[in-house]
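// run 5 | inverse folding | seed 20
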């Protein structure tokens, strides 16, 4: 994750908060998305 932080302009605190919200949304809305690390990773990193 440390390598991806350089490509994002958001602070680590806000990025973690956004990732947490997205994770909860994905878990409740589309559990199948968790099986796709590429899709989930790109969304969580916000890059």
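// decoded
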């Amino acid at each position: 994750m440390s390598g991806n932080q350089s490509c994002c302009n958001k602070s680590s605190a806000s990025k973690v908060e956004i990732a947490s919200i997205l994770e909860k949304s994905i878990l409740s809305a589309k559990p199948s998305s968790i099986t796709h690390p590429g899709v989930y990773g790109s969304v969580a990193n916000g890059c």
